[in-house]
């Protein structure tokens, strides 16, 4: 049912000549979208420079946009660096090309396959736990980045001798860091041909990555045989006409899947540890569940369904600190929202950050309350009030993978250690993803062995 606000359109804050609302957006995007939400109407108009823009403030409209992105709305151009790294993978492909690639990639991340990856997730997390000692001071973000990087390399490319984890990880680190810096700064506005020092570092890293992936693919083709990793499934995939993916398409999809399973999950886990440290009752409940379900052993895929509180911690983290904090589409001819026409070329923005904290949809929206995700919670969570993985036909293919990974890692490490971040407040800062504004340092506190 459409709400009363869905058809209402109102003007947002006044902008300045030529730049529109760009200065307000650039100064503090999170506060800007929160202010647009407070306008109350289903659609709020504003200006991204000279480009007309709308912010959607109603779950019905958000769902409508997410469902229409393959018909009357198109994906935006996120700039040279994004295109250079991601290529023509399923995330950026369009039309028939997107439908073909989705049909080839989707089977690789279905629940049956994710089950096979769960052991790798747990093994990598256990290796991390075994490196830690009680009372050690660690950088959580660095630890989670290294951990999810190992998981991504092993689940995507495998563990054979041809795979050099250090080379892939180092190249990806440089590429992701420079891409985020370009998005936050003026780089996104520069022409493709312009080469800054950052762009040169980025290009060198991606070119090295491409050579490494090409070497791994060639070695895998020569060796033959089936393996339990995403690359093997992509090499074996064929479309309805019996046509396999080309080497370039395999490169684009493996890089896409690596990115989907690495930085976003590392960031979610970093925020989860921080929020748990600041909410002792939630951390105590986590310890209780891990003792009850695992009894000191390493979790497997079959434990996922029983780790309800652990999953609730992850979902509540994604509500308060959504890694993907905005989503953008561009209206094409004939686009409508709420029955009202949207002029072609209009940028249409939705923000998980703003919607996930809307007091009209979420009681005590600023509070970390994992219990709101448990069965029998008093406040129902309705469609499109929570969308950290997008939605519609363009929903994140790796959403199931990411949830299982976050739960398995949190359970494996959380059954062994508390991570105490202290009282210092860590604020979010935006780039392509929602990151902590500084190092997230913590002291490791060993968890007593469960009573038998």
From TrEMBL:
Any one GO molecular function term: heme binding
- State the needed cofactors, names only: heme
Q: Which PROSITE patterns match?
A: CYTOCHROME_P450
Task: Cite the entry's keywords alphabetically.
Answer: Heme, Iron, Metal-binding, Monooxygenase, Oxidoreductase
Sequence positions that bind heme? 396
Q: Mind telling me which InterPro entries this protein's record contains?
A: Cyt_P450 (IPR001128), Cyt_P450_CS (IPR017972), Cyt_P450_E_grp-I (IPR002401), Cyt_P450_sf (IPR036396), Cytochrome_P450_monoxygenase (IPR050121)
State the family named in the UniProt similarity comment for this chain: Belongs to the cytochrome P450 family.
> What is the protein name given in its UniProt record?
Cytochrome P450
Native organism? Actinacidiphila glaucinigra
């Amino acid at each position: 049912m459409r709400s009363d606000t869905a058809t209402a359109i109102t003007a947002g804050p006044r902008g300045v000549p030529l730049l529109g609302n760009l200065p307000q957006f650039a100064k503090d995007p999170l506060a800007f979208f929160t202010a647009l939400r407070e306008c109350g109407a289903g659609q709020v108009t504003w200006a991204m420079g000279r480009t007309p823009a709308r912010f959607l403030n109603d779950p019905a409209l958000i769902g409508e946009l997410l469902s229409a992105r393959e018909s009357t709305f198109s994906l935006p151009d996120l700039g040279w660096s994004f295109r250079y790294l991601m290529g023509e993978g399923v995330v950026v492909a369009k039309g028939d090309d997107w439908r073909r690639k989705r049909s080839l990639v989707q089977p690789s991340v279905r629940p049956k396959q994710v089950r096979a990856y769960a052991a790798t997730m747990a093994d990598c997390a256990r290796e991390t736990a075994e490196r830690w000692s009680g009372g050690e001071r660690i950088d959580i973000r660095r630890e989670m980045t290294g951990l999810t990087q190992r998981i991504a390399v092993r689940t995507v490319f495998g563990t054979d001798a041809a795979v050099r984890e250090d080379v892939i990880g180092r190249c990806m680190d440089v590429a992701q860091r420079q891409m985020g810096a370009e998005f936050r700064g003026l780089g996104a506005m520069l022409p493709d041909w312009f080469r800054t020092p950052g762009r040169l570092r980025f290009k060198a890293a991606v070119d090295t990555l491409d050579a490494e992936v090409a070497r791994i693919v060639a070695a895998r083709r020569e060796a033959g045989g089936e393996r339990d990793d995403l690359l093997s499934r992509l090499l074996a995939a064929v479309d309805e006409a019996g046509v396999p993916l080309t080497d370039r398409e395999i490169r684009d999809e493996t890089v896409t899947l690596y990115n989907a399973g690495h930085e976003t999950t590392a960031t979610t886990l970093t925020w989860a540890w921080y929020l748990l440290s600041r909410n002792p009752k939630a951390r105590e409940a986590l310890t209780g569940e891990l003792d009850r379900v695992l009894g000191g052993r390493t979790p497997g895929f079959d434990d996922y369904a029983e780790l309800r509180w652990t999953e609730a911690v992850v979902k509540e983290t994604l509500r308060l600190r959504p890694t993907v904090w905005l989503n953008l589409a561009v209206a094409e001819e004939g686009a409508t929202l709420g029955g009202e026409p949207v002029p072609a070329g209009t940028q249409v923005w939705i923000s998980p950050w703003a919607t996930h904290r809307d007091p009209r949809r979420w009681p005590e929206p600023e509070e970390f309350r994992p219990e709101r995700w448990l069965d029998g919670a008093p406040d129902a969570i309705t469609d499109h009030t929570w969308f950290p993985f997008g939605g519609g036909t363009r929903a994140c293919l790796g959403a199931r993978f990411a949830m299982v990974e976050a739960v398995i890692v949190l359970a494996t490490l959380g059954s062994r250690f508390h991570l105490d971040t202290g009282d210092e407040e860590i604020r979010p800062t935006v780039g392509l993803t929602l990151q902590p504004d500084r190092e997230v340092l913590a002291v490791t506190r060993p968890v007593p062995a469960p009573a038998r």
